[in-house]
Amino acid sequence: MAKKEMEVVKGLDLQRYMGRWYEIASYPSRFQPKNGVDTRATYTVQEDGTVHVLNETWTDGKRGYIEGTAYKADPGSDEAKLKVKFYVPPFLPIIPVVGDYWVLYLDADYQYALVGQPSRKYLWILSRQSHMDEEIYNQLVRKAEEEGYDASKLHKTAQSDTPPEEGPKDTKGVWWIKSILGR
Asked: Whole-prediction pTM value?
């Protein structure tokens, strides 16, 4: 049975979407360390209309991060379908990796979001706050299931009561290598 086409947000106000988002839960991926905590993304519109992406996570007290660029997949569409491009590995960024970033749900106040992509291999529940009310979380999980995602694969991300500002950087990109190796 073919999966239905995913519904995405229409009319995304990119300026309102900018800023910091905390990862409340996600499908584990090889691009993120398994024991990462306080994972978050910060988005900033650039002069050329693209979005600067800063993804951060802390592992063993050290900050790992990767920077990239997001842009509308189809500039003429009002659908919230973006492409995100990162260069890997972080310590020698030479290989471009492009992925889909589809906003599947966004509350009217731009306080929480459900983000996925067409293969349904990746899923994120994001919030402006480092913690989310369980009722809202469950609503987003149900929405993900409606879009064909297996909610049993979601992994909640540990978030501190006081999120870190910055910390020692993993300048060697060791977190990235470990994540590729599944650690």
From this structure: 0.88
